[in-house]
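Now read these lines:
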Amino acid sequence: MSPVDGRGSLTRSIVLLTSAVAAVAVLLTGLFAWRTIRTNAEAQERDQLSRQAEVLARTPPLASWMLDRQQRIAGPEDIKLAIVRPSGEIDGPAAGVVGDAIHEALLSGDSVSTTARLDGDDVLVEGAPTLTGGGLVLTQPMSAVDQATDRMRGSLVLPLILGLTGAALAGALLARRLARPLVTAARTAHRLSEGARGVTVPAEGPAEVAELAGALNTLDTALTHSENRQRDFLLSVSHEIRTPLTTARGYAEALADEVITGEEVPEAGRILRTEIERLEHFVGDLLALARLEADDFRLDIVEVDLDALMAETATAWSARCARHEVDFRVERPERPVLITTDGFRVRQLLDGLAENALRVTPAGSPVVLALRADGPGALLEVRDGGPGLTDDDIEVAFERGALTDRYRGVRPVGSGLGLAIAHRLAGRLGGTITARGGAPEGGAWFTVRLPPYPGAPYTPLTNA
């Protein structure tokens, strides 16, 4: 079943969303326009009626003719007229709307614009003063406003429908533009999850979608690189395991076939023990690395005196270095350096770095273990007088097997896991580890910074 089964498609969702937004916008616009159309229609009818009143007020013969016509011809008229004589007398079918206020305003030379009741109907009233000192009033039934309102509202429906249709089409185009690259990205992600490599997503569409495509392309490159590294690592592991197994098997078969007898047996046993120890050490490194990468890796956090721990470590490594004729040195404050950490893991970290240093340090050259307080935390160093590290080495120093593959057959190498274990241990303890060349002793220089307690942020005081 597809992971999106039971869910609507993005295209459908965008179309529905844009259509809903457009419908709400159209509805609100329509409601607002519906209410304002009535006001606009009344304003237009009133403006026309006012202009007619002004024209009649300036042309007394025309006003008299219209009044005579309305008085002679009885019947319904849309526009009715009333004339206010300079004497105050009122004539015409619209005389009923000329109250005291209108009468006084016209005689005073003011225009009139109001609404009144005439013959039981609501009418618009517009009045204008005449040139002779009186006034003229025109009325129009409010039904004319209703008819104009209906016409204007009827003409509003089509634009609203077209706007809604256009919004739906725009939503469909937008959905297609957004969904197409997303669908392509989803298909590419499924192909990546199924193991396909070298697939790319074109960076098209909006910036966010193009960024997603770029992220998938970066993921493809990272997966390819990671799988190549894993493949190379597995080949390296196979080589490291096969070599001691081949040697052990050869000597075991020789002992079983009694090819090796007498005084040669102890030497064969020693070689078998050495190869088995080598194999055991390699398998131990693999298990340690696997544990460090597990989510349930355990730390026993207590207060630890790193100065005392460094003294114990120095005692153990001075003897080992002496057997290899390597000059061992220790630099410590000889006073308590207390932090809250896992002392066993710190010792494991130091042992791994010291073993790595001893392996590459020739006889007569130094290996140095150093400790000093660094603000609220502590700084540990392991330096050696070996061949050192190049800038290219430093970039891959903590990758599994990277330096082992690079220097196999050139200098003594181990399982290729020691520095990777050290890097993960430092991270688990809440600290950092860095590598560089150019140590005072001439070789590699590894620096571990540990916080006062795991997860504690702090700014180191030592620029080392």
Remarks:
- The longest helix spans residues 142-193.
